[in-house]
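Supplementary Note 3. Input sequence used for the single-chain structure prediction.
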Amino acid sequence: MLAALTTLLLFQLVGEVLTRSLALPVPGPVIGMVLLFVFLVLKEGPGKELQQTAQSLLQHLSLLFVPAGTGILVHLNRVGDEWLPLVLAIVLSTLLTLVITALVMKLCMKPEDRETA
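The predicted structure, written as discrete structure tokens, is reproduced below.
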């Protein structure tokens, strides 16, 4: 598990370094995730240890929402002042995600299955 965590953190570190050194407008962990994806595609998939570690992290994903919830409570006045843009951003991004997901799913379906969908 330690080697898999090290791999994940190493890709995140590389993403952070690239983001800061090239002044990219994309967060470092996102760049690191893309690099990890490319690495795993070239390697033809993750190893057993990386799969198990990722599954363990996903089982405890809800713990990562604790800092976000704390931040909302700390800045509750600001959230109250700017509730309309926040609600619009959440609703519009959710709708956009649903539409794009449906279009991608339709493109990935076999031609004969598209007619019934």
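The CA atoms of residues 9 and 32 lie 9 Å apart. The chain has a mean pLDDT of 89.
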